[in-house]
């Protein structure tokens, strides 16, 4: 079992990854859970159908009674109504300020459970037990939220978990698309922090399907990048914005297709190709790197051609809802060079030009068979 | 104009009371408001119909454009749907993380606006411009919340305002019932902090209808009590619970009759008579004091006889939802003596006995004409 500590001004907590992490319910987290008058497990329906037994057994072994609330699978749960249903559930089961929640599921489950914990009677503690690779990102750092019809993660709080317990065994049942989704955030952590790490990921022909051992090591590296940033800027005043690399267009694509229809990480991968292209203009990223990144993404199975038929203006209206928008202007996280992010205001006209350019690059790299094989060769 | 400063670990802000406080938009709050990309005014419908012009003029004089959102009057606005409507309004008007909200209304408006500000894109600043006496309590201290069908203020956040601006001129249009409601919280602040102040309030035959001058002085005293407590315990770990004196039964009565049907302060006044009665058993409050308090409340127009036909069990189910409930046991704020509060677990059986006793006391003090006049005499 590996672990690291996330330290913010207000609190500090551990992230654990490896077999047997749930044994910590009986040791490190015994006091928290046994002092609670009620423990609520909010479990994603899909995660629960595969793996709930593992969590239940560990809680039983630690002698922790709990109340179970099954959430609709994935992003479907993160709605205003879903949020209020969770609160009614807690009230009807007589939860109090002395109660504790456990999130058992992917990013959506963690975001929703965290926001419920942040706001139930003005705040109770919660533990994150992520069941997806994607959640290596969202489970750490205390960002919680629900989606609104107008945009993703628009309503939420900063509320740090009391601990994060990754059991990588659970990842073995993830569909390939979910693995891709999660690994996109890992690539993001590499891109904004470390050129060598980025290159090693892009050159690994097994990407995104790593062995359990390599996966644990890589995820912990990703979490460390995030933990270091969150330690310096918990409330996203400056540095933390860098973790949004690829997310401005990514969220817009996700909203355009309908949350959950194209996976979050797939959308972020599209968003990162766009940010790299903008970084050619505003930073020193080479067009060769962007092209190789497009080929890498396509080869790894990301549906980057999904935006080929999407009008720029359809995405623009969602981009304008981005939380980084400042005085009406779009703000992007871009790269000076690999590992060196910065934020940049970009005009709508330039955004549109870059979008058209991205689509023509994708066409060129993805639909040109000679380049495809060249792309694959490059990566081996 | 008078003012005091509320200092918490995380922040510090001023509370201003007096004529001309809105001129501060052009001075002390000019930077906050002019740096905002949007300013939203969330105004209670009733308050707006009487006084919005004063706020509008001040904002115009300070050259601050704003977007107006009218909320349903009173507690009707503090619902899950009302909360989500506010967020949709902000998103549709392209508010961002750089925006600021202003709450213009009573406690409900401030609670709702504050909770929206706490959670819109994970938190934006807001100013409190309370229009009721009751809000002298709720506008200070950073407690924000909405009501759930299961109970009052069950979902919320701690989110301190950037400033609180009381314009007492607005209080002149308040219905008597609203004045009573607000002054109950003032009595609470006296009861938990200062025996002499309590006695002077109870002996003032004009209570609750004070002159503007006296009202400003008294409200500032009440706010100071709250500010001192919040400074020591922002997140209600211990001391801050004392501000809940009278609220355990008070909230239950309010929920029983339907939020807004009997005013908050009227319910708190009933709750305080109950807490005083329990303080006879667990503290050193004399039965004579409780009786004189019942006569005082009745004489001042509080509908304390409203609970005469209410079964204890109908209230108990709401009391069990109280946020102070610990491991299933009811916890009350009681008084050792005037000005000296403490918290106390009380069994359901004892709660019921005290409730029956309270009703018989009310009957005795309120419906016995000889005592009524005696009560009035006592207070002169």
* CATH structural class of the largest domain in chain A: Mainly Alpha
The Cα radius of gyration of chain A reads 20 Å
* Quaternary organization: homodimer
Major pleated sheet of chain A: 7 strands, mixed
Assign an overall shape of chain A.
globular
Task: Label the CATH architecture of the largest domain in chain A.
Answer: Up-down Bundle
Which two chains touch over the largest interface?
A-B, 38 and 38 residues
Terminal CA distance of chain A: 31 Å
The tally of structural domains of chain A comes to: 2
CATH homologous superfamily label of the largest domain in chain A: Dehydroquinate synthase-like - alpha domain
Low-confidence stretches of chain A: 373-380
Please tell me about this protein's structure.
The structure is a homodimer of 380-residue chains. By secondary structure, the first copy, chain A, is of the alpha/beta class. Chain A folds into two domains: 2-172, 3-Layer(aba) Sandwich (Rossmann fold); 176-378, Dehydroquinate synthase-like - alpha domain (Dehydroquinate synthase-like, alpha domain), CATH 1.20.1090.10. Chain A is 47% helix and 18% strand. Chain A is built from 14 helices and eleven strands. In chain A, the strands form three sheets. In chain A, strands 1-2-9-6-5-3-4 form a seven-stranded mixed sheet, with helices on both faces. Chain A has a two-stranded antiparallel ribbon with strand order 7-8. In chain A, α2 (45-61) links the parallel β3 (39-44) and β4. In chain A, α9 crosses α10 (264-282), α9 (247-257) packs across α12 (312-319) and α13 packs across α14 (369-378). The two termini of chain A are 31 Å apart. The A-B interface holds A 37, 80, 84, 87-88, 91-92, 94, 96-98, 118-123, 143, 145, 148-151, 154-158, 235-236, 320-321, 323-328 and B 37, 80, 84, 87-88, 91-92, 94, 96-98, 118-123, 143, 145, 148-151, 154-158, 235-236, 320-321, 323-328.
């Amino acid at each position: 079992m590996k672990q690291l500590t996330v330290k913010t001004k207000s609190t500090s907590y551990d992230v654990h990854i490896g077999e047997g992490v749930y044994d910590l319910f009986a040791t490190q987290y015994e006091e928290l859970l046994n002092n609670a008058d009620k423990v609520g497990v909010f479990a994603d329906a899909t995660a629960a159908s595969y793996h709930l037994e593992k969590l239940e057994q560990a809680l039983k072994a630690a002698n922790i009674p709990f109340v179970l609330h099954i959430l609709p699978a994935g992003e479907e749960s993160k709605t205003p109504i879903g949020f209020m249903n969770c609160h009614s559930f807690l009230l009807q089961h007589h939860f109090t300020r002395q109660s504790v929640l456990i999130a058992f599921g992917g990013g959506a489950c963690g975001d929703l459970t965290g926001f419920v914990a942040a706001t139930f009677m003005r705040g109770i503690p919660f533990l994150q037990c992520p069941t997806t690779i994607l959640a290596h990102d969202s489970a750490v750092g205390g960002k919680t939220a629900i989606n609104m019809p107008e945009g993703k993660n628009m309503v939420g709080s900063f509320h740090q978990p009391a601990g994060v317990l990754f059991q990588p065994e659970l990842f073995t049942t993830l569909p390939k698309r979910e693995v891709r989704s999660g690994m996109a955030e890992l690539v993001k952590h590499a891109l904004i922090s470390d050129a060598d790490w980025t290159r090693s990921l892009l050159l690994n022909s097994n990407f995104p399907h790593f062995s359990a051992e390599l996966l644990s090591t890589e995820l912990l590296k990703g979490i460390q990048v995030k933990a270091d940033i969150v330690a310096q800027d918990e409330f996203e005043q400056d540095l933390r914005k860098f973790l949004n690399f690829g997310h401005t267009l990514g969220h817009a694509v996700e909203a355009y297709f309908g949350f959950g229809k194209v996976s979050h990480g797939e959308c972020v991968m599209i968003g990162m190709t766009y940010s790299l292209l903008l970084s050619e203009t505003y930073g020193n990223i080479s067009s060769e790197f962007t092209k190789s990144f497009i080929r890498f993404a396509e080869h790894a199975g990301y549906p980057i051609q999904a935006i080929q038929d999407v009008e720029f203006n359809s995405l623009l209206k969602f981009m304008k809802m981005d939380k980084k928008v400042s005085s009406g202007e779009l703000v992007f996280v871009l790269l000076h060079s690999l590992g060196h992010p910065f934020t940049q205001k970009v005009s709508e006209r330039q955004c549109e030009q870059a979008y058209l350019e991205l689509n023509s690059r994708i066409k060129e790299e993805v639909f040109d068979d000679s380049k495809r094989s060249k792309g694959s060769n490059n990566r081996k």
